[in-house]
Amino acid sequence: TAVASLIVPHGRATIYSANIFRGPAGRPFTSADVIAQALDWMLASRVPVINMSLAGPRNAILDRLVADALARGQTIVAAAGNGGPTAPPAYPAAVPGVVAVTAVDGALRIYRYANRSRYITVAAKGVDVVAASSAGGFAAFTGTSFATPHIAGWLARCRAAGTAANQCVARLRQSARDIGAKGFDEVYGHGYVD
């Protein structure tokens, strides 16, 4: 609910939603096979931009599905992970070709639990972001999962104009405002995208 509400302001008329979580609301869980089924459905539905506000260990089946999506011209945007500065790479964000999004706060400071690595593509606001709550009303959310839909919405708007996936990703990188170390860095990637 929160992620979809963060995509809506970017002007997308249609949002496909695949619920990959199981279990109670306070302790949801998922598995690679459930994520694979959801991703396979998105591929079959020819969704041009796929937001994956999740992160976990590497999985060969998911890697293959992600590679298939990218080869078909679909764009995958994924959360960089909330394991902290020394955490290992998070997947699917670290799969080559995926747009990996990290989170910053309102002052453009990196979220303290955000992963850092060369796979980071860009940063977006993801700390205390106000979004719709599944319990009703609105709430504040924090994490790279809540920065990711901003970038997915940006890319969806670019794709809706008829622009190819690789050109949209190149435009995204070019539009990023360099923050942190000069040029590309492992904290903010190419920089901040509003």
Compose a concise summary of this entry.
This protein is 30% helix and 14% strand. The protein is an alpha/beta fold and 194 residues long.
Number of strands: 6
Q: Would you tell me the structural class of the helices and strands?
A: alpha/beta
Mean residue pLDDT: 93
Distance between the termini: 21 Å
Number of continuous helical runs? 5
Order of the strands making up the biggest sheet: 1-2-3-4
Order of helices and strands: HHEHEEEEEHH
Given the C-alpha coordinates, what overall shape results?
globular
Q: Major β-sheet, in short?
A: 4 strands, parallel
Radius of gyration: 15 Å
Strand content: 5-15%
- The residue ranges in which pLDDT falls below 50 over 5 or more consecutive positions are none
Specify the helix fraction band: 25-40%
How would you sum up this structure, described in words?
The chain has 194 residues and is of the alpha/beta class. It is built from five helices and six strands. The strands form two sheets. A four-stranded parallel sheet has the order 1-2-3-4, sandwiched between helices. A two-stranded antiparallel ribbon has the order 5-6. Helix 2 runs parallel beside helix 3 and helix 4 (144-160) packs across helix 5. The two termini are 21 Å apart.
